[in-house]
Write a structure and sequence with these properties.
CATH topology: 2,3-Dihydroxybiphenyl 1,2-Dioxygenase, domain 1
Number of strands: 16
CATH architecture: Roll
Distance between the termini: 38 Å
Strand order of the largest sheet: 2-3-4-1-13-16-15-14
CATH superfamily: 2,3-Dihydroxybiphenyl 1,2-Dioxygenase, domain 1
Order of helices and strands: EHEEEEHEEEEHEEEEHEEEH
Strand content: 25-35%
Radius of gyration: 19 Å
Length: 323
């Protein structure tokens, strides 16, 4: 039982149409699934990823039109990284983000790696990470119809940053319950705060890292549009996921049990600082109900809610997508 890395990150948007424009037209990601939140079918659930939606490349969004402003703070997933092939790609992105009038902080050094911290139009906290010196979990492949050149495009999710007031309970879960080990640290850009610790699992590298930030100067985050709902970690298959259910029970961690999501099976629980973690199987994947060439073009509904299609579509605002 060893987690393979990051599976996906799910965040909140207040406007699916504008969200679609930014992540496909500006960032060049592919919409690989247009579906609904299975727990509340009145809202869209959009999945952006690499060419075929490989595990570890998915950035997803729930549309909540009335979502308020996010007030950043602790007990949060405070940053999502997107991997690009190398430092030369960052030079391309620096120019592209500037031309597209995207709020960014320029190229920064983070340990051995170069990055560009930036925000989407709703304040989603993002970072482009160069894989120039990265080793470990392989990235995906840029979609051939992307608005970004294949040698410059986003190839997957990089490290996820967690921000907490007291790091000890979260570190305990990462290392003693999950399969992460502390592999390094780097200076916190906020003066007076302790270094940010790096935890890795599986083959390691950007696709398998969690960065744990301690902030004693912040209150608990008030989430809204532009915030992250949960992070999911990769599990090989259902058999292993069943073993994780037992492991969580043995550590007295309340959990959801296995939940059917059709494109994968999932298991949810909160660590002691209140951050929502998910464990997800690698398969069956997004081609379970669509041809790879047509991913994301129409509204996909799992078989167990397909009978509700007319009712579901009546509640959704039309979303124009043109993959």
């Amino acid at each position: 039982m060893e987690l393979k890395g990051i599976h996906h990150v799910s965040a909140i948007t207040a406007n699916a149409q504008k969200n679609y424009h930014f992540y496909t037209d500006v960032l060049g990601m592919r919409l690989v699934k247009k579906t609904v939140n299975q727990d509340d079918t009145s809202m869209y659930h959009l999945f952006y990823a690499d060419s075929i939606g490989r595990p570890g490349t998915d950035l997803t969004f729930f549309e909540i039109p009335r979502a308020g402003t996010t007030y950043p703070g602790t007990s949060s997933i405070s940053g999502t990284s997107l991997r690009v092939p190398d430092d030369k790609a960052l030079d391309y992105w620096l120019k592209r983000l500037t031309e597209k009038k995207v709020d960014h902080q320029g190229i920064k050094q983070q340990g051995r790696h170069k990055t560009i911290p930036f925000q989407d139009p709703e304040g989603q906290r993002l970072t482009l990470n160069s894989d120039q010196h990265n080793e470990g979990v392989e990235g995906g492949q840029v979609w051939e119809h992307s608005s970004v050149p294949s040698d410059k495009g986003i190839i997957g999710l990089g490290p996820v940053r967690l921000t907490v007031k007291d790091p000890r309970p979260t570190e305990e879960i990462l290392t003693n319950v999950l399969t992460f080990t502390k592999t390094g640290s780097y200076p916190n850009p906020v003066p007076g705060q302790k270094d940010i610790d790096i935890f890795s699992t599986g083959q390691g590298g950007h696709g398998a890292e969690v960065h744990l930030e301690t902030r004693d100067d912040l209150e608990k985050e008030r989430p809204g549009r532009g915030s992250v709902h949960h992070v999911s970690f990769r599990v090989e298959d259902v058999k292993e996921l069943e073993e994780w259910v037992e492991r969580l029970k043995s550590n007295r961690l309340p959990n959801s049990g296995i939940v059917e999501r059709y494109y994968f099976k999932a298991l949810y629980f909160r660590e002691p600082n209140g951050i929502l973690f998910e464990l997800s199987t690698d398969g069956p994947g997004f081609a379970a109900d669509e041809d790879v060439e047509r991913l994301g073009e129409t509204l996909s509904l799992p078989p167990y809610i397909e009978s509700q299609r007319q009712e579901i579509e009546a509640k959704l605002k039309p979303l124009e997508t043109s993959n």
